[in-house]
Design goal:
Nudix hydrolase domain-containing protein, 2 domains, 1 helix, two-stranded antiparallel sheet, NUDIX_hydrolase-like_dom_sf, isopentenyl-diphosphate delta-isomerase activity
Length: 77
């Protein structure tokens, strides 16, 4: 069975939709702006931070340690 690749909305530098969507791998390859979520799980009582090792087959930063949910480009405040 063929695997379907997720498509991302391509954004402007200010976070507005351009009306273009592209496969995830193309957005990362081309360095396009797109929405992303970063989730930090921190146990204040123990000072522990949950991290995970990225899969070796990821198109960006394979095999490296990362926060629990990572993305690429995002709108900065």
């Amino acid at each position: 069975m063929a695997q379907v690749e997720e498509h991302f909305d391509v954004l402007t530098k200010t976070g507005e939709k351009t009306g273009i969507t592209k496969p995830r791998s193309h957005v990362h390859r081309d360095g396009d702006y797109h929405r992303a979520v970063h989730v930090w799980i921190y146990a204040e009582t123990t000072g522990e931070l949950l991290v995970q090792r990225r899969a070796d087959n990821k198109d960006s930063y394979p095999g490296l340690w990362d926060i629990s949910s990572a993305g690429g480009n995002f709108k900065k405040n």
